[in-house]
TrEMBL record:
Comp. bias (Polar residues): 1-19, 39-62
Positions of region (Disordered): 1-62
UniProt feature, compositional bias: Low complexity: 20-33
Domain of life: Bacteria
NCBIfam families per record: SASP_gamma (TIGR01442)
Keyword terms: Repeat, Sporulation
Name by which UniProt lists this protein: Small, acid-soluble spore protein gamma-type
Keyword Flavoprotein: no
Keyword Hydrolase set for record: no
Pfam families associated with the record: SASP_gamma
């Protein structure tokens, strides 16, 4: 059984794959960039618009 799971944890996680993902993540953070998951799910223009709208609402309510 141990020979069949060489390179994997007891739960079946591929150690080499995790190391590769960690290395890629470290490279991105060193360059001041976010991972692709964050970037692909975030629309910066929409966030700016929502922030601007929130500021306008805050000044109207004060």
């Amino acid at each position: 059984m141990a020979q069949n799971n060489r390179g994997k944890t007891s739960t079946g996680t591929n150690i080499q794959n995790v190391r590769q993902q960690n290395a890629q993540s470290a490279q991105g953070s060193q360059a001041g960039q976010f991972g692709t998951e964050f970037a692909s799910e975030t629309n910066a223009q929409e966030v700016r618009r929502q922030n601007q709208q929130a500021e306008q609402n805050k000044s109207q309510n004060s």
